[in-house]
Amino acid sequence: MQQALALLLLAFLNILPLAAQSNHSAAPAPAAKNPEAVAATEALTKKYTLTADQAKQMYQIQVRKQRNQAEVAALQTTNPALYQAKRESLQKGTLGSIKRLMHTKEQAQLYQKTQIEVRTQKAAKRKEMLLQKASKEAIEAALLDIYAE
Hints:
Shape: flat
Helix content: over 70%
Strand content: under 5%
Largest sheet: none
Number of strands: 0
Structural class: mainly alpha
Number of helices: 8
Order of helices and strands: HHHHHHHH
């Protein structure tokens, strides 16, 4: 079943360039333009056993995530506080979109399990950094680096 879904996803991603060409679009196809989104989609499709429709939606979520990350990247050096806030917002939005995509009980349970593991890792990291007397900003940055999906 998972192999069939993976093949459907790959077929969909291979059709995207053809669809873009048939629409006479000058822009490259999303699959060709964003290999990171393709890789993330494939991994999450396998992890959550997504249907072909869910995989398409997941791809759009990953494209949006990559685009938003690129848009805020410059803030990392020019305005670190704003960068951290936007990064946190981006993560929450992406997770919300992914959560809404989960339709089966098994998918929802696996998503919840993953988020519990992330919260546990963040709590351990916070405790570790507090013992090291790290700054609030350093702790927040380290916690944002702990992310799944």
